[in-house]
Amino acid sequence: MRVTKEQKAEAISNFPFVGTLLSDDSYGSGHINDTFLLVFDISGMGQIKVILQRMNKDIFTEPVKLMENILGVTSYLRKKIKENGGDTERETLNVIPSKDGKPYYLDSVGDYWRAYKFITDSTSYDQVEKPDDFYQSAVAFGNFQRLLADYPAETLHETIKDFHNTKARFAVFKQVVEDDVMGRAKEVEKEIQFVLDREDVANYFCDLLEKGELPLRVTHNDTKLNNIMIDNVSGKGICVIDLDTVMPGLAMNDFGDSIRFGASTAAEDEIDLSKVTCSMELFDLYAKGFIEGCAGKLTEKEISLMPMGAKTMTFECGMRFLTDYLQGDTYFKIHREKQNLDRCRTQFKLVKDMEEKWHTMQQIVAKYS
């Protein structure tokens, strides 16, 4: 359901914003939540900006628990940032409580809203515009791992059940193919077979975790380049944003999701697959930055499994896009017909390219471990 002017106005009026509202336009390129940038004039003394979001309760079915996660993690990050002499206003998200003191507002329609202080003089990028931006995002996500290394991951709520449980997603995928509710399976037999041929990829990390061979960590779980704010002056990655999927997970998955998105030479929904490859130069740059940012907080095994993280997350994402296409495009927002199918195909092309460059990927990670 689209956000109406009345619904947005109700939400705005229930946060303690000050000044005269100048604009409340849509903001960003996220697929899930509805995000708005509010600009207020403060009695002629200047303007302030605020981020307002309507949380997607179809995806995040327990928004109260989600906000508990975000408050817990951001409070911990502020403590660590302060200890390190950093800027707590710019180096982590700051939640603005609603007028009733809660970290969210529940409107008359039954939707949940939240507000954040806007991180000034910084930019997020949907695609790598210059290599250093990708490197800075790697350092920032690695630093996120470092700062939260001692946070008790098991205390976090699972905001989306089995979010990066690739084995469980594989089982769901097979059922979706069998059900074929939209009658689309026939036209994507090649893509379906691509998934079925890689069940070992779906099982790999889950099996190691079940055996206790990998540590459970606080992970971001959506480590795209556009979830890092980069300072406009210094060019440094200063803040990790979009913490909806922060929960217990694997460090290799955070690394891998960045690679599948940021090291691709094409847009996520590129139709011309000849343009889609995994850049080894960008893979090298990201591996260097991420390992530097983690600053010794990862085990040798975690570092050695980073290439598998890249392959697994790319495979999983392609499988999710294909699953959503088969179900009628109910999860990811689409702006044109078959966009999820195009997204799926780019991911599978990247997986195939990674398989062909596997030895190179392993060598790159080894030189920084």
In short:
With 369 residues, the protein is an alpha+beta fold.
Instruction: Summarize the amount of helix as a percent range.
Output: 40-55%
Number of strands: 11
- Spans of 5+ residues with little confidence (pLDDT < 50)? none
Computed CA radius of gyration, to the nearest angstrom: 21 Å
Mean pLDDT: 95
Sheet of most strands: 6 strands, antiparallel
| General shape | globular
Q: Termini distance? A: 48 Å
Element pattern in H and E: HEEEHEEEEHHHHEEEEHHHHHH
Structural class: alpha+beta
Strand content: 5-15%
Tally of separate helices: 12
Q: Would you kindly provide a written description of the structure presented here, covering whatever features stand out?
A:
By secondary structure, the chain is an alpha+beta fold. The chain has helices spanning 5-13, 63-83, 131-147, 166-179, 189-196, 199-210, 251-262, 280-294, 300-304, 306-327, 339-356, 358-368, and strands at residues 20-26, 34-41, 47-54, 95-96, 105-106, 112-117, 122-123, 217-219, 228-231, 237-240, 247-249. Strands 1, 2, 3, 4, 5 and 6 form a six-stranded antiparallel beta sheet that branches. It has a three-stranded antiparallel beta sheet with strand order 7-9-10. α3 packs antiparallel against α7 (251-262) and α4 (166-179) packs antiparallel against α6 (199-210). The longest helix is centred in the C-terminal third of the chain and has 22 residues, at 306-327. The protein is globular and about 60 Å long. The model has no long low-confidence stretch (mean pLDDT 95).
